[in-house]
Write a structure and sequence with these properties.
Helix content: over 70%
Number of strands: 3
Strand content: 5-15%
Length: about 170
């Protein structure tokens, strides 16, 4: 890989694309190692991450957020409960409903394995930038996520089209 500074806009796009791809691979490695340390699989970890970010929710809402079927989400919740990382709790106002929430152990594990070390590693980097530059990074990251979500939907359509052609 060349470390020569890009000279053209096209070279900048190519370098940016390469850095984004490398960042995604590095995140994938971190996610896999955290799963191994927690003793859970990647799907369960993705659902746990959703619960940790958004708090308690119904199994149906978790299924929708994770793009899993309701049957699959039941198995995920069962495994997370057995691992001590999630629990089913009564809905505060509707006793017919049940919510799923992360346990204190889940938050402690996330803090120990992700939050605390990442703050220690990221804070010195973040301190190099102005507030306006950080806002720019937030905007770029958010828009990049939105692009990924649109691309995922395009891929889902392609997958459905492929399935209908082979039927």
């Amino acid at each position: 890989m060349s470390r020569e500074p890009p000279r053209t806009r096209e070279e900048l796009y190519t370098q940016l694309g390469g850095e984004v791809r490398a960042s995604q691979r590095a995140t994938d490695v971190v996610d896999e190692l955290i799963c191994q340390l927690l003793g859970i699989n990647r799907t369960d970890a993705r659902c746990l991450d959703i619960l940790e970010q958004y708090g308690s929710m119904s199994a149906g809402d978790l299924a929708e957020a994770s793009r899993l079927t309701t049957g699959a989400i039941t198995a995920v919740i069962d495994r997370l409960e057995r691992a001590g990382l999630a629990r089913r709790v009564p809905h505060p106002t509707d006793r017919r409903r049940v919510l799923v929430e992360p346990t204190p152990e889940a938050y402690a594990g996330a803090f120990e394995l992700m939050v605390e070390p990442m703050i220690a590693l990221w804070r010195p980097l973040g301190d190099r930038y102005t507030d306006d530059e950080l806002r720019l990074f937030i905007d770029f990251t958010r828009r990049g996520r939105e692009i990924q979500e649109r691309h995922a939907e395009w891929l889902r359509i392609r997958l459905r089209e492929r399935g209908s052609r082979s039927a």
